[in-house]
Design a protein that fits this description.
The protein is an alpha/beta fold. The protein has a domain of 218 residues: Zn-dependent exopeptidases (Aminopeptidase), CATH 3.40.630. Helix content is 32%, strand content 14%. The strands form two sheets. The protein has a seven-stranded mixed β-sheet with strand order 2-1-3-9-6-8-7, with helices on both faces. It has a two-stranded antiparallel ribbon with strand order 4-5. Strand 7 and strand 8 form a beta hairpin. Helix 3 packs across helix 8 and helix 5 crosses helix 8.
Length: 314
């Protein structure tokens, strides 16, 4: 065999070894090859209560060998998300629960729906003032289960770019204590407080959902707010949820209909606990609503800009 032929064999061998380098040593490529964020539509399964009880297994991390990917097209190396135009960015701001099915009841006998509607309206005003002119306030009528299906259908029909559902928190009935407020029997639990941010790992755009959830949690934390830690505790029973980000209070709520079946990034915010007597008063204050509204707007602005590659929950 001649020398040129041997040299060709050596060069081919080196090239093959270089192609087998694990993607884990090139993190900026990891997100590109995990697949499109627009997956097939998941089957609909309605939830009949505020809390769903079943969870899907967390997606298992995997490594992709570059050699198995074939030729790289220039489009495959583009960033995961490009800068958007706020004026054209469609945000559906979902008011949790309905006037007929009002959700939790506060320590002072105020329906959760009242808190949700008031806060959502204020967030809508702030988003529009910040240039997000396509923000849509979604107020749904009817009983709990049908309303879940309807709000998802509206968001999907609008081809929204982001779905944010606004709620206020409570605790399981077994943790409630009795007291009287203005001569009426009521219930409270002062043991827990704070906001929580939820996403579904089954959502077809989980990566982007988690990215916005992290941004929102960081902005809430930056304003001095703390997240509710009780969802990791055994005392919560079947209301426990996996904590995806211990720094910002992002939990998974996999089977919740409005997070699982929306065909866009979807996040649910429990703005604070209204069953906690002190926090209920804070949630009723303009100052707290201003802080939460500012956090949502700042997170939306960051979300509407170029995104870092998604590396998964820490």
């Amino acid at each position: 065999m001649g020398v040129p032929y041997c040299g060709a064999i050596i060069a081919a061998t080196v090239a093959l070894l270089l192609l087998l380098i694990d993607v884990s040593q090139a993190n900026w490529l990891t997100d590109t090859f995990k697949g499109s964020s627009k997956q097939s539509k998941t089957s609909s399964r309605a939830a009949s209560s505020k809390h769903a009880t079943r969870h899907a297994a967390a997606p298992k991390p995997h490594h992709v060998k570059l050699a198995a990917l074939g030729p790289l097209s220039p489009s495959a190396l583009k960033p995961a998300a490009s800068k958007c135009e706020p004026a054209k960015f469609r945000i559906v701001l979902d008011v949790g629960h309905t006037a007929e099915s009002e959700g939790a009841t506060s320590a002072r006998n105020v329906p959760e729906f009242t808190f949700n509607l008031r806060l959502a309206k204020q967030i809508e005003e702030r988003l529009r003032a910040a240039g997000f002119a396509q923000t849509r306030l979604l107020v749904t009528e009817g009983k709990a289960r049908p309303s879940l299906i309807r709000r998802v259908a509206v968001a999907n029909d609008l081809s929204a770019d982001l779905f944010l559902s606004i709620h206020h928190d409570s605790v399981p009935n077994k943790l409630l204590e009795d007291w009287e407020f203005e001569g009426k029997k009521s219930h409270f639990s002062d043991r827990f407080s704070g906001y929580s941010v939820f996403v579904s790992r089954i959502n077809p755009d989980f990566k982007t959902s988690f990215a916005f959830a992290e941004m929102l949690g960081k902005e809430l934390k930056a304003r001095g707010l703390k997240y509710a830690e009780q969802y990791t505790m055994p005392i919560m029973g079947h209301y426990q949820h996996p904590l995806l980000d211990k720094e910002t209070g992002v939990y998974s709520y996999d089977e919740l209909v409005v997070l699982r079946t929306t065909r866009m990034p979807a996040v649910l915010l429990e703005a604070g606990s209204i069953i906690n007597r002190d926090e209920e008063l804070k949630m009723d204050s303009p100052e707290r609503r201003d802080a939460i509204g500012d956090a949502v707007v700042t997170a939306a602005k960051g979300f509407c800009g170029p995104q870092e590659p998604f590396l998964g929950p820490p």
